[in-house]
Amino acid sequence: MSIEELLIFAKGHCHSTHAKILLAELLDKNPLELLVNLSEKVSEEKCELYKKEVLALANNKPLQYVIGSVNFYGNKFLINENVLIPRFETEELVENTIKYINDYFKEPVDILDLGCGSGVIGLTLEKKVSTKSVDLVDISKKALEITKKNCDLLNSKANIIESDFFNNVSKKYDIIISNPPYIKTNEEIEDIVKNNEPHLALYAGVDGLDCYRRIIKEVKYYLKDKSIIAFEIGCTQAQDITNLANKELENIKVIVKKDLSGKDRMLFILKNIV
After folding, report:
1. pLDDT (tens digit, 9 = 90+) per residue, 133-178?
2. Burial status of residue 152 (CB atoms within 10 A of its CB: 0-12, 13-18, 19 or more)
3. Rounded to whole angstroms, what are the CA distances from 127 to 43, 113, 157, 264?
4. Which residues are CB-neighbours of 163 under 8 A, at least 6 positions away?
């Protein structure tokens, strides 16, 4: 079959933009190249693979899982159904964290990415700031398999630790960053998310705050005197998490930042930082 014939097939099953992205990825071209090479023949093996991927999209499998990778902050990361699909809000969390590190730390920093999933947060920080160490922690063995692949892909020196939060962590950090589960148990979310992404990384109790409670209660033992905690949060959770921090931690300043949609989405706890 030709590129044009494959695109015609795909448009009968999925959005035309997704059809182009999927085929461009498969053929290692950009979408524009497809349109100027419509008559180019595609091998039978790749035709069958493409059709299989298109039908997966038609069955509401997310495009990112079908492709098996995402671009996050300028780097390619492998993903699958065992880890969350990284989102723009998480890139904003990383962007703001980079700024805080550059503003307040002159020496290389020790970073902990707690609940790392595919490792996009910690591995991006490792590339963008001066680090002494980066530890990537997750409770899920299957998630850490993807983390390891991304470490290899990016030639990272990060340490991978299988741990239920801080259970297997034994040092103190300048930066502890986390995008933990924060969806309420009975909260309505999009079917494509609920039916595909790992629930272990989505849900966090009746009010969605279980993970923040645990992290904030235990985190004091893993913070250096001067340190920052960076959280991605649900858009209605800022005040509750601020209250938790002020109850459990001393000498802190809490800063809530909005995402590009104007929603509270990031919360930073600055300890002993003026």
Report:
1. 999 999 999 999 999 999 999 999 999 999 989 999 999 999 999 9
2. exposed
3. 38, 14, 11, 26
4. 137, 138, 139, 169
| Greatest C-alpha distance within the chain | 67
The pTM is what? Answer: 0.87
Cβ atoms within 10 A of the Cβ of 250, count?
A: 8
Residue 106: how many CB atoms within 10 A of its CB?
Answer: 7
Neighbours of 128 (CB within 10 A): 17
d(CA 271, CA 111): 15
- Residue positions counted in the chain: 274
- Count the alpha carbons within 13 Å of 69 in the hemisphere toward its beta carbon: 13
